[in-house]
Amino acid sequence: MSTMVVAVVLGSAVLHAFWNALAHTARDRLAAVALIAVASGGAAVLLLPFLRPPAHAVWPWMIVSGVLQAFYNFGLVLAYRLGDFGRMYPLARGTSPLVVALVATFVVGQPMSGLEAGGIVVVCVGLLALAFSDGMPTRADLPAVAAAVGTGLTIASYTVVDGVSVRRAGGFLAYSCWSFLISAVLVLLGVALLRRSRFLPSLRQGTARGLTGGLVAMTAYTLVLWAQTRGGLAEVATLRETSILIGAAIGALVLKEGFGRLRMAASAGVVIGIMLIAH
Fold first, then answer.
1. Is the keyword Disulfide bond assigned to this protein (predicted)?
2. Which string of b and e fits 185-200 if b means at least 16 CB within 10 Å?
3. How far apart are CA 119 and CA 272, in angstroms?
4. What's this model's pTM, rounded to 2 decimal places?
């Protein structure tokens, strides 16, 4: 992978961890997700008149991507409600790269070098070690773990869909805007159905935080889509999940969730894996 692609994906990872921390620390996470949808969907509406529509062949997949991203948002809210950010975030994000790597290699037909494959394995092991650094989950933790793993599988699904489709779309920015708009509409409908008469009043709390998170989220994933047009699907997906390192730091330094020796060792492993992928 080129240095530019690596730098862009790592920058996206920082932004991704930031908006996830905003969502986690919100008093009302469901309202925060709705505000994130308002911001990203609104930005898409403003940009779309200046962009050429994506190729007709990718529209079905773009719709699938939007639906999967909506499910991802609700899965994230559930995982954060059931467990700590420092564990749920790496578990959700750490599940995805290995699944994407297997699909990219054996289904999509994107071969990788031995060093890249080794780097992906090292990063995945490090990310999962971060998730379980406080010990193996107890029976009481299983619902939270299930929500996080389910969210990770959703991430893997839309990553594969987007990684294949964006190359055929004729423009990554238009593809991003349409998929975010579709997701935003579905998220807002879902929250409105859940909240009913409390929907609009709930959006008045943490408005600035939610809207900022939406713009950051859209920027972060648009950078990933650009990278997917220039790099391998598995490599980009794995580098993107290094946002977990930032998330672990936020959990330790801001949310006071602890950062022991195992987390430090796991973080070092992730850095080594990144170096192998970006060789």
1. no
2. ebbbebbeeebeeebe
3. 7
4. 0.81
